[in-house]
Design a protein that fits this description.
The chain is mostly helical. The protein has a domain of 110 residues. Helix 3 runs antiparallel to helix 5 and helix 6 packs antiparallel against helix 7. The chain starts with 13 loop residues before the first helix and ends in a 14-residue tail after the last helix.
């Protein structure tokens, strides 16, 4: 018995070794999509792909939808900008917060449902979290406008 039974025989062409190695890697379509970065999605909905990619395929990608490539691109840009602000510990409040939540809701709604009346699985998955974030953001905004200090869950002022 060989020490490395999965090892290809000596003299096997490189392409055959690569194919054999790839055949042992189990990756679903969903994993591939999930591993793509937000920058990838923002880029692929960019203007440079308007005619070559989205012109012929937008309707097939979003059946029964009237969404445009530019609408998706602008919403992804809003999410991208908010994500970067949050990563740099910058505030995302008031109008920017509402725009960000609206952009997330748009993407969840438009990019996943097959028919107009369907509730997209992504919307179902995000619904509770979006409601919690929206309530928390609205409460924080109200407190900031009223001049009172935001409170933690235990009722103590934040930073106090």
């Amino acid at each position: 018995m060989a020490a490395f039974p999965d090892r290809p025989r000596e003299g096997t062409p490189h392409i055959e070794r690569v194919k054999a190695r790839q055949a042992r890697i189990a990756v679903s379509d969903g994993q591939v999509v999930a591993e793509l970065s937000l920058g990838f999605w923002k880029g692929i909905f960019g203007r440079k792909y308007e005619h070559g990619l989205w012109g012929p395929t937008l309707k097939r990608t979003f059946p029964n939808r009237t969404v445009t490539r530019s609408a998706v691109a602008s919403q992804l840009e809003a999410i991208y900008q908010a994500r970067n602000r949050l990563a740099h510990h910058e505030p995302v409040l008031h109008k920017r917060f509402r725009e960000t939540v609206g952009a997330i809701e748009f993407v969840a709604r438009e990019l996943d449902a097959r028919r107009e009346e369907d509730v997209a699985p992504l919307t179902l998955l995000l619904r509770d979290d979006l409601e919690l974030v929206t309530r928390s953001g609205n409460e924080l905004s109200r407190q900031l406008h009223s001049g009172s200090r935001p409170k933690e869950e235990g009722g103590r002022p934040v930073g106090g």
